[in-house]
Fold this sequence. Notes:
mainly beta, 33 strands
Amino acid sequence: MSEVHVRVIVIALSVLAAGCSPNIAAPTPAPTTIATPTATTASSSGVTSPSVAGQVTAFDVLTELVGWVALRDEAGATLAKTSDGGRSWQRVGPARIAGVSSIDELRFIDERRAFALAFNEQATPQRGSVLGTEDGGATWTERLVAGAPSGLPGPNPLHGLVVVDDRHAWVVIATVPCDPAGCATELRATADAGVSWSTSYRPTAAVVVRAAFADVSHGWLTESFVARRGQDLLATTDSGRSWQLSLAADRLRETEAFVGLSAPTPRDVWTVSLDTASCTGDGCEKYALRASHDGGLTWTTAHALDEDASWRRKEGCGGFLGAPVFVDSSHGLIPMGQGAGGMSPENPGGLLVTDDGGQTFRCVRVTPEKTSIEIRFASAKVGWAIAFTIDNKRSGYRTVDGGASWQQMALPGR
């Protein structure tokens, strides 16, 4: 399945710090089932049956009508599904998934098979895990477990789950405890639905930041150097068994950092980067957009760091740029976030949308509220968005025209 489900998280200045991850426990020979089925019944518009509480922590969309949200409250995590485009929701599985405090990332391949990135804050040490389901989320099994190392700056020791089909997945983890210089991370891969995992890439004097795959074979990742400033972008054509330099650090400014990358096809790849020296808590002044249309062999700069900012400063939109989400070779979106600085609540957010491969953009408002936006697309036309305010109030939206217009959904929970 082509990986057009691209998750984008807009968190102010998150690219300024490399992610840290954990010691890895060996895969369990016989996966442990951690949830049991619970019957569900139909519900009226905007109502979940059985009722669920909590805040949305992850979501995924499969078709124009079908999608899921993961929710968390003080008691733990649960899952809800819609089959009518968000008009009604049904709880999937138990009221609380055993041993899971939150589901942080969710990737459905079809209505039965999925992977999820979970976190257990009650365990000692706290741990992250990759979960798998083959019954639509009624039950989940642990496919990979990672204990949180000492010095970990964030809650979940795993991040950046990438899934292209029911057997192939990648996740960023770490192998040693963190120190003041950072956390030693690597990219792990499975080709058998998580039964076994291997090291796809282990950097030297650097940390893996994020990865993206267009299909089973073609992928890209960014790494950030530990002993010096700078980042590289690497590419693979053999499922991550070997990696080659695609965009070298010496072609970037020393203070330049990748915000994200998007690869809707094996040939078409885009990156957004920023100049960290131009950033404050309220925003960044310098961004660049690059594109490759030969799988990363050569790159063109659509918009340079020092270029006039009019390409991204559009009336009605503003804030920090997030990772690009291109759904085909020409149509793409860049979400915008509010940030955490003193004036950041005044950033309106919004989406920058292009139909010409990133040469020109227009502003699209998902909601009139000032929010940050997180988006996922099931196809070139069908997508969902979660908007969240500076005080973490969340609302859901759906599009069936590639993000040109959005309709609000009634989310379960709160």
